[in-house]
Write a structure and sequence with these properties.
Oligomer: single chain
Helix content: 25-40%
Order of helices and strands: HHEEHEEHHEHEEEEHEEEHEHEHHEEH
Number of domains: 2
Mean pLDDT: 92
Structural class: alpha/beta
Shape: globular
Largest sheet: 9 strands, mixed
Low-confidence stretches: 1-9
CATH topology of the largest domain: Rossmann fold
CATH architecture of the largest domain: 3-Layer(aba) Sandwich
Distance between the termini: 52 Å
Number of strands: 16
CATH class of the largest domain: Alpha Beta
CATH superfamily of the largest domain: P-loop containing nucleotide triphosphate hydrolases
Length: 357
C-alpha cells in the first residue's frame, strides 16, 4: 500500500500553529473585505446552487452535484460550472465528445460522461465571466450548479450548500496547515443549508441532535444528513467476469471509508492509494501491473472509483486495459425522505422563489 505522511503530520500539528494563525488572518481579512463590500461580489445572472465546503476536499462534492442533477434535470434546463481542478488548460470551456479529462478536469469529465445528454458541463476559473458567457448562449440553462464555489465569493448563488463529513465535521477540524480547513469555521454562517455527508445509514436521532447542537455555534442554517451507497462494480473497458478478490486503486482526499467498505464486502488483497485528483503516469501503471502479477494466481481484479477511472482510461498505455481486468465502483448520495423533502423545499424557495408551505 502506498501511504502518505498525513498521520505523521498530525502528530506534529502543534508546530504548525503559527502558520495556521497567519492563514486565518489572510482568509479572515479576505472574507471581511467581501462582507464590507471592498471586494466585489455579484449575483449570478442565472439561478444557481453553490456546492462547496470549508475543507480542502473529500467531502463528497461530486456525489452531491450528481444528486442535484438527478433531482432537477427533468424540471429545468441544467448546467454545471466548476473551475476544472487539475486540468491542463485555462479559460472557459464546454465539455463535448472530443474533450479529455486533461482539458476539463476529471470530475467535470465524470459528470459529462454520466449526464452529458441531459445537461451542459462548463469549466472556467473566472466564474463571473463564465456565467456571463453561459447566459449569452442560445440554449442558456435555467439553473446552474456551481461546483466547489463556497469560497469563490465573487459570485453569490441563490442557495449555498455547505458539505462537511460525519467523520471529520468542520467544527472538529483546524485551519491549514494544522488541519484541512481552508477558511475559518465562522465561514459556515454563509450557508443556507449544511449537509453532513458520509453518515452511517443507522445514524440515530440522538447523534444527529448532538451534531446539530455543535453546528449551531457557527451556523443557523438547517442541517441535513446524507449517506453514501455503492452500486455493483462495472467493467471499465472490456466485459469481464468480476472477482471478489480486490486490488483497490484510489486517488482520493480521504479513501478510508472506501477502503473499509471494500474490506468488509470483498477480499481486499492490496490498496494502491494516490493523492486526490492524481494524474496517473506510466510508472504508476507499471506498479499496478506488478501488484496484479503478484496476486495473479488468485484471479483478482483492480477496483477503482468513478473519478479515478476517468484518468486511468485516458492515461493507460496501449494494451493495458486489455491486459488487466479493471472495474469501477459506482457511488451515489442518498438522504432520508424527510431530509430529501427539506432540501427540495429549500431549492424551490431560495432558487425558484416559490413557497411550498
Amino acid at each position: 500500500m502506498i501511504k502518505n505522511s498525513n498521520s505523521a503530520m498530525r502528530r506534529y500539528a502543534f508546530l504548525l500553529y503559527p502558520f495556521a494563525l497567519l492563514y486565518d488572518l489572510v482568509t479572515g481579512l479576505r472574507n471581511l473585505f467581501f462582507d464590507l463590500g471592498w471586494l466585489k461580489s455579484v449575483s449570478s445572472p442565472i439561478p444557481s446552487i453553490v456546492v462547496g465546503n470549508l475543507s480542502v476536499g473529500g467531502t463528497g462534492k461530486t456525489p452531491m452535484v450528481e444528486y442535484l442533477i438527478r433531482m432537477l434535470h427533468n424540471e429545468k434546463r441544467l448546467a454545471t460550472l466548476s473551475r476544472g481542478y487539475g486540468r491542463k488548460t485555462k479559460g472557459f470551456l464546454k465539455a463535448s465528445p472530443t474533450v479529455s479529462p486533461q482539458e476539463i478536469g476529471d470530475e467535470p469529465f465524470q459528470v459529462y460522461g454520466k449526464f452529458g445528454t441531459h445537461i451542459s458541463v462548463y469549466v472556467g476559473e473566472d466564474r463571473v465571466k463564465a456565467l456571463e458567457e453561459i447566459e449569452a448562449k442560445s440554449d442558456a440553462p435555467e439553473l446552474v450548479i456551481l461546483d466547489d464555489a463556497f469560497q469563490h465569493r465573487h459570485v453569490r448563488g441563490n442557495l449555498q450548500i455547505l458539505l462537511t463529513t460525519y467523520q471529520k465535521p468542520f467544527f472538529s477540524d483546524f485551519l491549514l496547515p494544522m488541519g484541512r480547513l481552508r477558511e475559518g469555521k465562522s465561514g459556515a454562517k454563509r450557508a443556507d443549508v449544511v449537509v453532513v455527508t458520509k453518515c452511517p445509514e443507522a445514524l440515530d436521532s440522538f447523534e444527529k441532535d448532538v451534531i446539530k447542537s455543535k453546528m449551531a455555534a457557527y451556523s443557523v442554517a438547517p442541517v441535513l444528513f446524507s449517506s453514501i451507497s455503492y452500486g455493483d462494480p462495472v467493467p471499465l473497458h472490456n466485459p469481464e467476469l468480476f472477482s471478489s478478490r480486490i486490488i483497490l486503486l484510489t486517488g482520493l482526499a480521504n479513501d478510508r471509508p472506501l477502503v473499509e467498505y471494500v474490506r468488509e464486502k470483498y477480499d481486499l488483497l492490496e490498496v494502491l492509494s494516490y493523492p486526490d485528483h492524481y494524474d496517473y503516469k506510466e510508472v504508476d501503471f507499471d506498479k499496478i501491473r506488478a501488484v496484479y502479477k503478484q496476486h495473479t494466481l488468485l484471479n483478482p481484479v483492480v477496483l477503482t472509483t468513478e473519478k479515478d477511472a476517468v484518468k486511468v482510461k485516458s492515461n493507460a498505455p496501449e494494451g493495458f486495459l486489455e491486459e488487466i481486468p479493471i472495474f469501477v465502483l459506482p457511488i451515489k448520495m442518498s438522504f432520508s425522505s424527510a431530509d430529501e423533502l427539506a432540501l427540495a423545499k429549500l431549492i424551490q424557495q431560495k432558487v425558484f422563489k416559490k413557497d411550498n408551505n
